[in-house]
Specification:
Layout lengths: L7 E2 L12 E6 L13 E6 L9 E10 L2 H7 L15 E9 L8 H4 L5 E4 L2 E2 L15 E2 L15 E5 L3 E3 L6 H5 L2 H14 L21 E4 L5 H13 L2 E6 L2 H11 L3 E4 L18 H8 L7 E6 L5 H5 L4 E9 L12 H5 L3 E4 L5 H14 L5 E6 L4 H13 L5 E5 L14 H11 L1
Parallel strand pairs: 1-17, 11-12, 11-14, 12-13, 14-15, 15-16, 17-18
Antiparallel strand pairs: 2-3, 4-5, 4-9, 4-18, 5-6, 6-10, 7-8
Helix pairs in contact: 4-5, 4-10
Length: 433
């Protein structure tokens, strides 16, 4: 199967004129109401790179990735946004220096020098499986006031050595940047919250459990979290079905990512109506027809849309005691809960992000199983604002399949040229097989 390399825009990496200079991509404040305003991007320059303190490491950022929250920040629909703070919660880079202290760094820190690392996409949640130890100190990295220096759309950053994980060697820079936030969110939904009994701990790989025989639905395939959830579930051995408004995205999920099948949740977009007196067949009925005859029920639903997902799954598709995991509500801020779901002992579990411990487990799982995040498109150069705006446009349009990435510095493991979309790259790769 060809690797998903995305698109590389721009002819060369745009480097700061002074190698000691550091640039930060942020937003500029303008007048406007939340939801109506769209803050412009701004590239700020500082004459000196940051200096790592005791226990810190200096990371040169190679690539960073966008998330929907960055779009919401520009709309002023995200809490406590920070003007001037670096954007983006996802980042990968190389440790170039260690912070000075009165004593020598521990061997675990010394061993990081020169290593490519993933940066923790948040602060303030260590290990509690129930949620952040202190909600007041928890925040996602990038564009917020609580941690105004933490965000990965910049050339350099100094971070505590405890806030990095060695990057899985099989990942390109673009793939690595695509992993942290969506990977962690999907991991917590799939492993911690789903009730599927899945388990994987860094350093305890022998105790890994299997999901063989488990049936799971992942809604809204095409988004980063949904794709990561599908990949993790398949790697655990689960049977996975998907929904989308796009038949093309369903096809890709089945043909390249291991989904068993999928249905369009747009009831008018299905051929089954031809055999139903011309009436559209609801997507839950279409999905029921795809499930295996010997076990035609779902064990869990991983959902980021909300809306009528409980009504569509709890009464007909989920087994008694099944679990709906909600990591978002893109349809709207409310979700219906039915008495029928109560009578079938169905559980609804909310989840968001994950802990530092879960992040370490997720990265270790990706390294062991060779999971490769899907990259939809890549813009080359932190100063290439036109190409970066194109990435934001894809988020607004919902046209991407996978993550949108900015490659910042050279030395990238991702190669490519021109402005060729990843479908064309995959076709060419297939032709060579």
């Amino acid at each position: 199967m060809p690797r998903n390399k995305g698109v590389l825009r721009g002819d060369i990496y745009d480097k700061p004129p002074n190698p000691k200079m550091s640039r930060t991509l942020t937003i500029k404040k303008i007048d406007g109401k939340p939801g109506e305003v769209y803050y412009p991007l701004e590239l700020k320059e500082t004459p000196d790179r940051p200096m790592p303190g005791p226990g810190e490491v200096l990371v040169r950022i190679r690539a960073a990735a966008l998330n929907h929250r960055d779009h919401f920040i520009r709309q002023h629909l995200y809490p406590a946004i920070g003007f001037g703070a670096p954007l983006l919660a996802d980042g990968v880079g190389v440790i170039e220096a260690l912070g000075s202290s009165s004593s020598s760094p521990p061997p675990s820190t010394l061993s990081l020098l020169g290593k490519r690392v993933l940066l923790t996409p948040f602060r303030g949640w260590a290990a509690d499986p129930l949620g952040p130890e202190d909600d007041r100190r928890f925040a996602v990295a990038g564009g917020t006031r609580l941690y105004p220096d933490v965000g990965y759309a910049q050339d350099w950053i100094a971070v505590p050595a405890a806030e990095v994980e060695v990057c899985p060697a099989h990942l390109s820079d673009a793939e690595a940047a695509a992993l942290p936030l969506v990977g962690l969110t999907a991991w917590r939904a799939v492993v911690t919250k789903s009730g599927l009994g899945l388990s994987f701990k860094k350093g305890e790989e022998a105790a890994t459990t299997s999901g063989r025989g488990k049936n799971v639905l992942v809604t809204g395939i095409g988004g980063g979290v949904a794709i990561a959830a599908l990949q993790f579930l398949v790697a655990f051995g689960c049977n996975v079905w998907v929904t989308s408004s796009s038949e093309a995205k369903i096809k890709r999920a089945v043909e390249t990512l291991g989904a068993k099948g999928g249905v369009s949740y747009r009831d008018g977009d299905n051929d089954a109506a031809n055999n139903n007196g011309g009436k559209p067949v609801p997507w839950d009925k279409k999905l029921a027809a795809l499930l295996p005859r010997d076990r035609p029920l779902l064990d869990a639903v991983i959902d980021g849309a909300g809306g009528d997902v409980v009504a569509k799954t709890a009464l007909r598709l989920l087994r008694p005691g099944g679990v709906v995991v909600s990591y978002g509500m893109t349809v709207g801020p409310r979700m219906d809960w039915l008495m029928g779901a109560v009578l079938r002992n169905v559980e609804l579990r909310g989840t968001t992000m994950g802990s530092r411990a879960e992040f370490a487990d997720m990265v270790a799982f990706v390294a062991e199983r060779g999971v490769a995040p899907v990259v939809s498109r890549v813009a080359r150069g932190l100063g290439n604002l036109e190409a970066i705006e194109d990435l934001f446009k894809e988020i607004r349009d919902g046209s991407q399949f996978g993550k949108l990435v900015i490659e910042i510095s050279s030395g990238s493991a991702e190669d490519g040229d021109g402005d060729e979309d990843e479908d064309e790259k995959n076709k060419k790769a297939d032709a060579k097989l």
